[in-house]
Amino acid sequence: MKSELIDRILYNVQSIPPFPAAVERLCELASDPESDLDEIMIAISTDDVLTSRILRAVNSSLYGPEQKITTVSEAVVMLGMQAVRNLALGVSIFSARMRKEKQDSFKREDLWRHSLAVALGAREVARFLGDANPEETFTAGLLHDLGQVVFREFFYDLYAPVLEEAAKGARPLHQLEQEAFGINHAEVGRELCKHWKIPESLTQVVADHHRDIREEHLGSREDRRVFAIQVADNLARIAQIGSDGDANVETEFLRILDTEEIPPERLHELLLVLPEEVHNAEVFFHMVGSENVEVSHEASHVGVFVEDRKEREVIRLLLLNLGYNLITAEELRKGEIKGTAIIIDATSPPDLCEWAKTQNVPMLDFAKWRTEAANQGNAGQINVVQLKDWLKSSLGR
Ligand SMILES: [Fe+2]
Ligand SMILES: [Fe+2]
Question: Among the three residues 295, 327, 349, which one is the final residue of a domain in this structure?
Fold first, then answer.
């Protein structure tokens, strides 16, 4: 029964339209260190739609060249080959070439926006981790969840309850898919990448993006890229930029804090700039109807005591995303700061706790939420959608 289903899924992968030949060729060339500008220009010039999109993008306000750029070669020189490849892939992936989904409860725009957020976030994390070619990680980020499209397009009736279950945060989506279909979206993504003739190294990262690599050292370039995508995947969920159908974050992703390359402040910065970067990238890709970017709000002090270090960090990230400043005891002593959240833990200096008490800073009861949460019992996972809702309602937002 399951193997029959898998066969049908793989058969449907083959029925998805291939990328335009020019995009396929561009992918090949961008991954080939021997390729030159002439070959790239020829590949792009064979496709009028691609040519006009690249020219439109390079002349957009995001790049704002001083003089209008009118030729593909100027555009490639200005954007760089990898960025042109990403642009070509981006506009191709979510173009209307695939059939419209039957139901709209799970919008394609959500997945697209999530993919962009992961691409942008993963590129940044890859830079932190010393990736010599972070644009490749960007591309892998764009592609990482595309296997879902096959479930959504061809098996929606079977997939809808799976998505519903995942939204509740009971279990990770890829596990639920595995049970229902005998295959998950990372594996389907691998087949889709092969079908689209995506280079092998990127295909591998897509296939592995839910692999548990926590026990291994981040030795190979591919491992580091997988890890960068996992970090960005979780950040995108925390910031709720689009959705990949999964409400949970695995707190283990924060083991990035144990690597020396990325201090927590950089992760915070990344979380804060991500919504706007996604917004800009959407403009760049000429998408319409982008959501408003979440901006800072006025807020008063609030405290929250969180025992577990990684859970504490998830709350920090969520509060940052909600527009709170996170401050230290030292800063507190210096005076009144607006829009502040004070995170207290077992290692906090006693005067911080004392200060919070004397100022009547309301304390959110995270431990209570944790035990009552729908996903209790799932160690190492937090449903960030529910947690953010709880934070918002506790904060009167
Ligand atoms: Fe995924
Ligand atoms: Fe994802």
Answer: 295
